[in-house]
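Hello Y.,

Per our agreement to keep a running log of every chain we model this quarter, I'm adding this entry. I've kept the format consistent with earlier entries: sequence first, then predicted structure.
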Amino acid sequence: MCLIVGSSLLLAGCGAGKAPVVAVVGDSITVISAPGVEAELNGYALYMRAIDGKRIDEMIPALRGELQREPKAVVVNLGTNDAMQARTHLDWLTGFNTVWNLVQSRSCVVFVTINTNADFLGRGTVAVDINHAIRHLAAVHHNVRVVDWNVAVHADASLLASRNPPADHIHPYSSRGWRWLGSHYRSALLSCGLHPS
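Predicted structure for the entry above:
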């Protein structure tokens, strides 16, 4: 079932029986890429909660809600809006630490790095700082996986290419970008030993 209301997305995919439950929490990047993510994560019991324009701290209630489903894995694609709103909201770290405290006991936690183009819009270094924090978690916690979206979009600008709407160097408007995210989420889940049904 896919329910899209305004600029938010709730996608519930109730997989059969023993399909591992996977929660994805994100912002507009997740809203836009949902079709490709859903296609690539076929065979998982997939639940996605995403809202345009939301920072990490603003999505904590949604994350808490998704954790009530007892997911085996959580994918966190948040932080772009923290970088873009750096001039008006300086504290991304409190939200980031709260997210980690909520998800750290899951057998698989997938963090998506932030496209550092967002730092040019926010005129700060928040995306760089969040990416550093993500890599630090992965270095010290065996259950953390990193999907390096930042490296990917800087290596291949076509992941952000688009004709309508015009490319903004932040969002994956083409299905190629959507599928890239979904396939890398799948690889991360498989590396945790979580196989689709």
